[in-house]
Sequence to fold (166 residues):
Amino acid sequence: ISAEQVDTVRRFGNKVYFGDASRLDLLSAARVQDARVFVLAIDDVEASLRTAETVRRHFPRTRVVARARNRFHAYRLMDLGVELIERETLLSALEMGRQVLTTLGLDEQTARTIVERFREHDLQTLRRQHAVYHDESQLLQTSKEAAAELEGLFETDPAQDGARER
Fold:
């Protein structure tokens, strides 16, 4: 939606479609019907959801890869049938966690294993909570259960013995 950004992209020789990405005429002009993948990285959550809905409804064979601002944005994208979702700050938070673990003295492989285990657990929790996110009491309950599961997951991992001592 930024004219300045459009000018910058055009200066580098790229084709630009300017306007509301949720409009069917703009998506058709951009030939989304011929695309295998549609990358959705709009900052405004509501605009992102409108665009996802339009693409999913009118171009069902086009896979949507979407950036979500947070868990609730991810849940709403999931409601629309978007399956490939990356939350904005998750990857950088995981990388920072890995760096903290290695700074505390864990070897690189152990730190990566811990981070990957956390990421898998978080993804499973996100999928489970998608079914109940409209119900605050169930969402709180599943959050408490997920925290206990995560604690148990790391307590039973022998690779963590050294980490707990630090």
